[in-house]
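Lecture notes, unit on protein representations.

Consider one protein chain, 169 amino acids long.
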Amino acid sequence: MSFYDTHVHKWHPPTRCHTSLGTWANAAGQVANTIVHKKTANLEDPVFTVPLELPMNDGDARGAYLVSVDVYYELLVAAATWLTAFIHRVTTPVNGAGIGAVEALAFTYDAASDAAGRVTADQHSMTLSLTTPVWVEDDHVIQVVLAFTCGGAVVIDYIGIRANYSYRL
């Protein structure tokens, strides 16, 4: 008997990310009773990475079939200069060898998140739809990376990521 659900989602909270460059801290969100990972206003180009925690499987066409990712964030005080997203598939290490080559997965931004739309001082819900959805195999980790170029006044509230996938057992 096989089970197949085409509308499965996994929330990745703001506390589950790795940040580089910038002063970041877990904080209260702009709306009462919410949390964010906040970058304070400084002239810097921060990058943050979110490893997606999805079911893995070593069977053929089994487990999570990643279709898209929704990224939720807010730019406060001022617009960012630039934002580029990446979706990477990383091969896990084997004995005697390091992590395998990082593969960039092709995707498209939703219509509202064109180059100018994703950097305005506003609340954002940005969908990254994989050009070719992928099965999450047991020797791969999928990571979403956001790279910002920011002026000195920009504050970023990272709210979280929702991974959208089909699930087959």
